[in-house]
Amino acid sequence: MKQYQHPTADQITLTGVLHALSDPVRLNYVQCLAQSIGEQACGTVPTSVAKSTMSHHIRVLREAGIIHIRPYGTQSLISLRSDELEKKFPGVFTSVLTAAKSSDVVELP
Amino acid sequence: MKQYQHPTADQITLTGVLHALSDPVRLNYVQCLAQSIGEQACGTVPTSVAKSTMSHHIRVLREAGIIHIRPYGTQSLISLRSDELEKKFPGVFTSVLTAAKSSDVVELP
DNA sequence: TTTATTGTTCTACAACTATCGAACTATAAT
DNA sequence: ATTATAGTTCGATAGTTGTAGAACAATAAA
């Protein structure tokens, strides 16, 4: 079984979070996750890039502390670490998500 | 006289702003600007990088729509475009600044 | 057991980026 | 006019990153 390494709250950096969210593909993915409820498998979110590319993006999000990955069968169930992020950087994550949602800022390449 | 090109409000993208703020040197610089009042010359903010490197970072911030540059003699007076950013992406800029200020997240390399 | 499903890892590559020194520009001061 | 000051621009370089295909691993379904 796959073991995923997640950063603890104090290991999460602001610049790391901002960098992870600054990619259109990742921001779009995170925004889709936020609109869903609970956990989502990787494949359930529509993407415009290859499977291996998405795997890379998901790792970046995980290492930045934005998502949590839980293996379930052959799937990887993804959930946002919204609460921890909100606690560590109040307003940052929520305002970014709102901004991403309320306009066409998320342009897939 | 140097002519600087600034993006209009509708040319500013969320990913562009996030990317510009995701660099420690730039985030530190912006945070210093925010703690000052009004315009600041480039040189008045302490940095840990070379002059030419700082010039590069300042251009990135300008092209992302985060700062405004006004030539004044031999100096470049910098001001934050806080109001425009707040209007376009409510809460994003302010929350990032607060997060950067309230902890040691800004680590100069 | 064989096949299908889901996602990861590896390799490669092209594009981008942060960094710096050196040369340059333009204004200010002497 | 000469010197000083404040930034910009130009190479060059080392490191990072987004992309995708191929091979792989692990579980599920037949």
Largest interface: A-B, 26 and 25 residues
Overall average pLDDT of chain A: 91
Helical fraction of chain A:
40-55%
Query: Strands of the biggest beta sheet of chain A: in what spatial order?
Result: 1-3-2
**What is the total number of structural domains of chain A?**
1
CATH fold title of chain A: Arc Repressor Mutant, subunit A
Helical/strand content category of chain A: alpha+beta
Distance between the termini of chain A: 34 Å
Q: Identify the CATH homologous superfamily of chain A.
A: Winged helix-like DNA-binding domain superfamily/Winged helix DNA-binding domain
Q: What percentage of the residues of chain A does DSSP assign to strands (E)?
A: 5-15%
Q: How many DSSP H or I helices of chain A?
A: 5
CATH class of chain A: Mainly Alpha
Task: Please render the helix and strand layout as text.
The structure is a homodimer of 109-residue chains.
Chain A: H1 14-21, H2 24-35, E1 40-41, H3 51-64, E2 67-72, E3 75-80, H4 82-88, H5 92-101
Antiparallel strand pairs in A: 1-3, 2-3
Chain A binds a DNA duplex (30 and 30 nucleotides) through helix 3.
Can you offer a commentary on this structure?
The structure is a homodimer of 109-residue chains. Chain A has 109 residues and is α+β, with helices and mostly antiparallel strands. Chain A has one domain (13-96): Winged helix-like DNA-binding domain superfamily/Winged helix DNA-binding domain (Arc Repressor Mutant, subunit A). Chain A is 47% helix and 13% strand. Chain A contains five helices and three strands, in the order ααβαββαα. The first copy, chain A, has helices spanning 14-21, 24-35, 51-64, 82-88, 92-101, and strands at 40-41, 67-72, 75-80. In chain A, strands 1-3-2 form a three-stranded antiparallel sheet. Chain A is globular, with a radius of gyration of 13 Å. Chain A starts with 13 loop residues before the first helix and ends in an 8-residue tail after the last helix. The model of chain A is unreliable at 105-109 (pLDDT under 50). The interface between A and B is medium-sized, with 26 and 25 residues. The first copy, chain A, binds a DNA duplex (30 and 30 nucleotides) through helix 3.
